[in-house]
């Protein structure tokens, strides 16, 4: 209901409407900071109250603010030290690593507020992002989400994955700092596409796939695209040389890749690939190289899809350069060859 008219008394203004008055009084930036901490249902109620707030008498505004300040004083006591201040002080006293662990215990995990915002991302989008991650990262994301959202997300995944993912989540004990950083990258990726998640179209990848099926016209089409937009043409061409085309290459091309690419980079790039892709690379390695690759993959453990994709891009960029220098042909698919 609208806020009380001029003859209102403070007791007639309910809690949600009082919160709306406070938020309207404190300015956009401060109000945004408060609203970011609200649960979705709370935020919608307060935003609705703010949108329909009528004029409020000055004495009512003063009374609401005074009541808030009095309650804050009673419950808050002395002003709390900001995290930045404590972080600097504790780092000087204990070292950065220990200080960060202490602060996480005091404030809770820093990443939780950001992950709480994923409640505004559609479950379909979250499930799509999650499906491309390593199972360890899947479990970690599920564990850090609010329980109700985690349940919705689990139901959105294929039944064949649900039991294994829940088991992986239950077995989580300690999480290192690097994994948390990767988890934050995943959250940022989900949130970055929030405003346009229903309109995203992977045009570059689709154009690359189309080009791959017209081998006789590839050079003409690529030249025309490059004349129109050189940057876009470069993106399409890079997408045409995706990591998956390794499975179609002649043995001498794989030999070149194995000779040029460090084992550690292979270990990252082969994360999440199918058995066929791993076999293509392993069968061209020496026994010593293959053993080193196995050990490196086990040692690295789980990592984000972004890091894996970066490693794959690095390998394909190197392979394209070396193949061009050696006058070798790269196949886009079975039977399709690029000069």
Automatic annotation (TrEMBL):
GO terms for cellular component: bacterial-type flagellum basal body; plasma membrane. GO terms for molecular function: cytoskeletal motor activity. InterPro entries: Flg_Motor_Flig, Flg_Motor_Flig_C, FliG_a-hlx, FliG_M, FliG_N. The keyword Cell membrane applies. GO terms for biological process: bacterial-type flagellum-dependent cell motility; chemotaxis. The keyword Acyltransferase does not apply. It is found in: Bacterial flagellum basal body; Cell membrane. It holds the Pfam family FliG_C. Keywords: Bacterial flagellum, Cell membrane, Cell projection, Chemotaxis, Cilium, Flagellar rotation, Flagellum, Membrane. Residues 13-108 form the Flagellar motor switch protein FliG N-terminal domain. Residues 125-196 form the Flagellar motor switch protein FliG middle domain. Residues 224-325 form the Flagellar motor switch protein FliG C-terminal domain. Belongs to the FliG family. PANTHER family: FLAGELLAR MOTOR SWITCH PROTEIN FLIG. This is Flagellar motor switch protein FliG. It comes from Pandoraea fibrosis. The gene is fliG.
């Amino acid at each position: 209901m609208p806020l009380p008219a001029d003859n209102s008394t403070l007791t007639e203004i309910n809690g949600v409407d009082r919160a709306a008055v406070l938020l309207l009084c404190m300015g956009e930036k401060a109000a945004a900071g408060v609203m970011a901490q609200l649960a979705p249902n709370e935020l919608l109620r307060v935003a609705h109250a703010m949108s329909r707030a009528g004029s409020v008498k000055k004495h009512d505004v003063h009374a609401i603010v005074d009541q808030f300040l009095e309650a804050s004083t009673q419950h808050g006591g002395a002003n709390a030290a900001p995290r930045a201040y404590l972080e600097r002080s504790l780092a000087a006293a204990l070292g950065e690593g220990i200080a960060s662990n202490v602060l996480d215990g005091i404030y809770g995990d820093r990443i939780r507020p950001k992950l709480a915002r994923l409640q505004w991302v559609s479950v379909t989008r979250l499930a799509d992002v999650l499906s491309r991650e390593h199972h360890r990262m899947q479990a970690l994301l599920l564990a850090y989400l609010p329980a109700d959202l985690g349940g919705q997300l689990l139901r959105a995944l294929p039944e064949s994955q649900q039991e294994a993912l829940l088991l992986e989540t239950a077995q989580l004990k300690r999480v290192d700092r690097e994994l948390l950083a990767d988890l934050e990258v995943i959250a940022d990726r989900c949130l970055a596409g929030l405003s346009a998640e229903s309109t995203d179209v992977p045009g570059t990848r689709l154009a690359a796939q189309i080009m791959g099926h017209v081998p006789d016209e590839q050079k003409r089409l690529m030249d025309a695209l490059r004349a129109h937009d050189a940057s876009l043409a470069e993106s399409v061409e890079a997408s045409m040389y995706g990591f998956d085309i390794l499975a179609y290459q002649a043995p001498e091309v794989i030999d070149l890749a194995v000779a040029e690419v460090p084992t550690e980079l292979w270990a990252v790039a082969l994360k999440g690939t199918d058995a066929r892709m791993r076999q293509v690379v392993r069968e061209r390695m020496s026994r010593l190289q293959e053993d080193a690759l196995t050990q490196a993959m086990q040692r690295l453990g789980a990592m984000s899809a972004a890091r894996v994709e970066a490693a794959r891009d690095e390998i394909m960029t190197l392979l394209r350069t070396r193949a061009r220098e050696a006058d070798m042909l790269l196949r886009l698919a079975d039977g399709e060859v690029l000069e």
